[in-house]
Amino acid sequence: MQTNYNTEQINHLIRHRRSTFPRQYSGEKVEKAIIEQILENANWAPTHGKTEPWRFFVFTGEGLQKFADFQAEMYQKFTPLEKFSPEKYEKMKQDPLKASHIIGIAMKRQKEGKIPEIEEVEAVACAVQNMYLTATAYGLGAYWSTGGVTYMEEAKEFFGLGEKDKLLGFFYIGKIATPSPDGERFPISEKVSWIEN
């Protein structure tokens, strides 16, 4: 079969995408042009009704400290004392500073509400997969975190998000010092049913 792309390389790229965590980063800065390319590829995700619901907030330089302080303070302010973890608080203060860039990920709900919300969330997830694959192609480490303040309603204001919008996590990017191990998957045959007659 004739193809327009190198399918072996594409298959390899998809199968070798890994989550690479902040502790694995070298501390070196990623070039702005690469971050812009990652975002541009995110913008080409599938979108039902052409709503393009993804919104991104890029933290780098001093912005990383601003993000670290914000999420740690939010966690401290809105976490009941019996559930508060000093270790988690410190991690929120320190992990962002290990990244080159952190991209806040949000879903902007269209006013008409014509497209089901779940489909808008799914479109943003497709955009994030584009980001993951682009980062991998450039040899960068990336990690989609949905911890911290991701699902706190009180965090939306910081990002200028409305009541029906959703904060969906944070995409950490850094140059790799310690690679992630090879991934594993159960056979696809265990997850597929063929209906042919």
UniProtKB/TrEMBL annotation:
The keyword Oxidoreductase applies. InterPro entries: NAD(P)H_nitroreductase, Nitroreductase, Nitroreductase-like, YdjA-like. The keyword Flavoprotein applies. Keywords: Flavoprotein, FMN, NAD, NADP, Oxidoreductase. Its EC number is 1.-.-.-. One of its GO terms (molecular function) is oxidoreductase activity. Binds 1 FMN per subunit. Residues 14-175 form the Nitroreductase domain. Pfam families: Nitroreductase (PF00881). FMN binds at residues 17-19, 48, 144-146. SUPFAM superfamilies: FMN-dependent nitroreductase-like. Its cofactor is FMN. Belongs to the nitroreductase family. PANTHER family: NAD(P)H NITROREDUCTASE YDJA-RELATED. This is Putative NAD(P)H nitroreductase. It comes from Thermoflexibacter ruber.
